Amino acid sequence: MMMCKEATRLMSRQLDTSLTFQEKLSLKLHLAMCHACSRCNQQFRLLHQTGRHFEILIERHAGTPPHREDDKT
């Protein structure tokens, strides 16, 4: 059985690149049996998704002057 340390490494790696079939299968089995790693995987995905949304917001507002509280516009 895969150890949690290896599962964590694969969880992180899968956010940036594709895993092999064997890695995907091993990780899926580990996550089915390990509540802590399953929860960690959810958190990794949420953080990754939040980072992507933040990146999109920055790109949309690039070149736009920052809003200042003392502006009356």
TrEMBL record:
<dbReference type="GO" id="GO:0008270">
    <property type="term" value="F:zinc ion binding"/>
</dbReference>
<dbReference type="InterPro" id="IPR027383">
    <property type="entry name" value="Znf_put"/>
</dbReference>
<dbReference type="Pfam" id="PF13490">
    <property type="entry name" value="zf-HC2"/>
</dbReference>
<protein>
    <recommendedName>
        <fullName>C2H2-type domain-containing protein</fullName>
    </recommendedName>
</protein>
<keyword id="KW-0479">Metal-binding</keyword>
<dbReference type="InterPro" id="IPR013087">
    <property type="entry name" value="Znf_C2H2_type"/>
</dbReference>
<keyword id="KW-0863">Zinc-finger</keyword>
<keyword id="KW-0862">Zinc</keyword>
<feature type="domain" description="C2H2-type">
    <location>
        <begin position="35"/>
        <end position="66"/>
    </location>
</feature>
